[in-house]
Amino acid sequence: MSLFQAQLYPGQALGFLVLGASLHDILTRIKAEPQRFPKIDLAFSQNAPIEEPVVVNLPSNGVRLRFDGPEQRLRLVEVVDFTKIHITFKEANHERDLMRPAAEPTATGPTFKHIYNRFLGPTYDGEFVPGSEGGKDVGTYVLSYPGVAFTFPMAPSAYSPDKDVMSLLSHNGTQVATSMAVFSGDTWAQARDTLWDEALPSLKTFAPLSKGSKDASPDDVTLVRIHGGGKLQLVRKWSGVGDAPLPSTWIILGETTPQDLVAELGPPDAIYRRNEQRMYIHRVRGASSSHGRRPNSGDVKPGSHDNLTDTDMSSANALSTDDGDYDSRDDDDEAVEDDAAGNVAGECFYNYFYLGFDILISTPRVPSQPPPGIDEPQVPRDRTLPSESQDRLVATKMILHGNVPGSYPFNRHRRCRWDIAYLDQPTNSETPFPETEERLGSAWKSTYLSEADAKQRQRGMVLNRGWGDSPGSSIEFLGGWEGEVKSSARKTDAIGADNSTTTLYGYPGLVFEVLRNGFVSALTVF
């Protein structure tokens, strides 16, 4: 195993581990170097995977990474074993080593004298954190610099608020640091209070990335606002010039062209053609049986009834879940003739793995009806070109991925946050589905014949992504739109993925894929 070498950028990064980077970006980079990072441990809350922090441990490298739950952005980088990493700091073209593990095999960490006199220089006094057992155990002294801090063990009897840092840490018993933290803030004491919800700057403000590094990323889409009627607003948090926010990008299903997408979002990370033969029976059922249709399916025009049950995520299977390599089984899907698969010529998914969504490109289809009693949003028409030809390819469906730890497709896409703009109460990607279900039921209540009719049409359909006989779609339906079926989930070797059975719930223009813990794994908008 090659030693992990990383340059320290206080308040910004440790090597390529940049504060504000997404969980998907970091894991993808780490998994691409198995010789350097042979072991990855992921820790998250089973009951609140998108509310509580997500922790990535790299035990072979002595590093621990902490991400917030809702945004999945890197908030804290910790070094917990200095013998497994070579850290440098560069200032005025002069590079200094924190510690050289190869040259100092007996050392367990950098000394206070080296940090204070040579590596970073003097700083203000730190803070003493008492140990457990009423302060009887050994405590911790935190030495803070702007954006970086070191911890030293200290007995309660050795600490006195009247002593300065030199007096406290210059004697032999407490002079070796046990850990280091990289964070955003002036001191660790101040940063703790805002660690998980501070508004982090764009990655493009980090100089090594802004100078044309291969790790440079496109502008983040921080939120997708769903307005109904096939209208989606893509919001960017960070500015383009100065403090002026970038204008929203609008996607109008049935109108926005592939050229529009590339102009606004850049070229897709991949293009995937799907095999939908196994979905045909559900389309026939949806077109011929009123019991199989979603609410107001009579308003959906011919040619679009496949949207009622199709939450195809074939795009997510272009990469293996284990090692990121291309799955050769998918060649079978690519090789299927379009007419044999029931596809129109050119129909495909545009995969934006690093933005967190997929977009289906096909011939124009009439999008779902707008919500009842809601004024349609004012869309700047100069940002999309309406389609005039029925043979022209346009965006007809968008799949927003939650990247929920514990879900089967975890880390195939970054997390895409969304909200439903036409609901009275705030409803977003962090809202538990039972609450979302109640609010959507109220919003669409006038479109149902009765309460019994509403319940009948909102039953769940169980989906299993763990059965490997369908690499093109990974879709298995257990029964029809029945209630949730209890079934054991197959564990996989994918990081953080151990739940392959989910349930689909449909509303006009929306299909939710819901995990057993009640959180939304993916949302399809059509």
Automatic annotation (TrEMBL):
Per UniProt, the ranges with Acidic residues bias are 322-340
How is this protein annotated for GO cellular component?
A: trans-Golgi network
Annotated segments matching region Disordered: 284-340, 366-387
* Family as reported in the entry's similarity comment: Belongs to the PHAF1 family.
Cited Pfam families: PHAF1
Which named protein is this? Uncharacterized protein
Which parts pass through the membrane?
Answer: none
Lineage here is:
Eukaryota, Fungi, Dikarya, Ascomycota, Pezizomycotina
GO BP terms: Golgi to plasma membrane protein transport
Q: Where is the composition biased (Basic and acidic residues)?
A: 378-387
Q: Where is the composition biased (Polar residues)?
A: 310-320
